[in-house]
Specification:
This protein is α/β, with parallel strands linked by helices. About 40% of the residues lie in helices and about 25% in strands.
């Protein structure tokens, strides 16, 4: 069996906790080496990363000789402002590329990445992983068999506590934390609501003089007979991410952080017994989900769809077919959506 020889660029949290474990789980991948800026920029000591994931090489630029000779593909987990130059560099060296979200910081750069990859016949993909998480897959199955009835409205909601552990580079991004995390909700709104360009946008003031993250962001989308809405607040005492699918028969809540799906029944006339039944369904679904996700987390099996992203990327690189759901054009579409928010923030 031919194996895809892969180098990993970054060495931070995403590389060590998402990309490398997902690659190690796929027998078709041969992890070759790690490229990082300096040993101090890695989540773990480079020697530990090398032993833990069976890497042969540690390097500090894409000019490393082993990259030219021993590598077919590159997985990029560096900060967002480096995605465009790193991906372009790797593509120009003839490597297939999987890059973390956001795909790029501007639609112009994203479109150039797409063009270069397509002209070179190379696979370029983006880590839009939550669409393959267990809870999201279950929601997709419920829709397919009609269990929710007709889904007419989809809402993406995020609350973020400023005290969360966040990378130091967040404040350097346009719109700060929004730019780093909004792609997850936007690509899920694309899938479940058919959302594209938002019809209306509200962007609140920045959190602080040195933090361009907006206090709150809201938007409405309409496409394919469904309405989509985005609501995000970045000054909360809790951190939660949800996608809610409102069907005519049932409502389902995808809890992205916990990888839990909660299904609520039709509450009919909203009488006392019906309200109690809804409350019981919510409580039972949450507790059952916390238990199953907790067991998977302890067993290091809760990967939030990253293994499926890696599988699709490898399939595409080995067969030459576009990776469904994570293609470069999927990445470009989300960047185009994000540019609308940046324009609204500028006024």
């Amino acid at each position: 069996m031919h194996r895809l020889r892969v180098a990993f660029v970054g060495g931070g949290w995403a590389t060590c906790h998402r990309h490398l474990p997902a690659a190690r789980a796929d027998a078709r991948i041969e992890p070759v080496g790690l490229v990082t800026q300096t040993p101090a920029s890695t989540w773990y000591a480079p020697a530990l990363i090398r032993r833990r994931f069976g890497l042969r090489h540690i390097g500090y630029s894409l000019d490393e000789p082993w990259l030219a000779d021993d590598v077919d593909a590159v997985v990029i987990g560096t900060p967002p402002d480096t995605h465009y130059p790193m991906a372009m560099d790797a593509l120009c060296r003839g490597k297939h590329v999987l890059v973390e979200k956001p795909f790029a910081l501007s639609a112009e750069h994203a479109a150039e990445m797409v063009r270069v990859a397509e002209e070179a016949g190379l696979v370029l993909a983006v880590v839009h992983n939550f669409q393959f998480a267990r809870a999201t897959a279950r929601a997709r199955a419920l829709i397919a068999r009609g269990a929710l009835g007709e889904v007419r409205t989809v809402t993406g909601f995020q609350a973020s506590n400023p005290a969360r552990r966040l990378p130091r580079w967040i404040g350097t991004l346009p719109m700060g934390l929004f730019t780093d995390e909004a792609p997850h909700l936007l690509y899920l709104l694309r899938e479940f609501a058919g959302a594209s360009a938002p019809e209306s946008i509200f962007v609140g003031p920045p959190l602080a003089a040195d933090d361009p993250t907006p206090l709150t962001v809201g938007a409405n989308f309409a496409a394919e007979g469904r309405a989509g809405a985005l609501n995000m607040t970045f000054a909360s005492a809790v951190s939660e991410w949800y996608v809610v699918l409102f069907g005519t028969r049932r409502t389902t809540i995808i809890d992205l952080f916990r990888d839990i799906l909660i299904v609520l029944p039709d509450d009919g006339g909203h009488g006392s017994l019906e309200v109690l039944r809804t409350s019981g369904s919510a409580l039972a679904g949450h507790l059952r989900g916390v238990l199953t996700s907790g067991i998977r987390h302890v067993a290091s099996q809760l990967d939030y769809g990253n293994q499926e992203v890696m599988r699709r990327f490898v399939d595409a690189a080995l067969t030459g077919t576009p990776p469904e759901g994570i293609s470069a054009r999927d990445g470009l579409a989300v960047v185009e959506m994000m540019e609308a928010f940046q324009a609204a923030a500028r006024g």
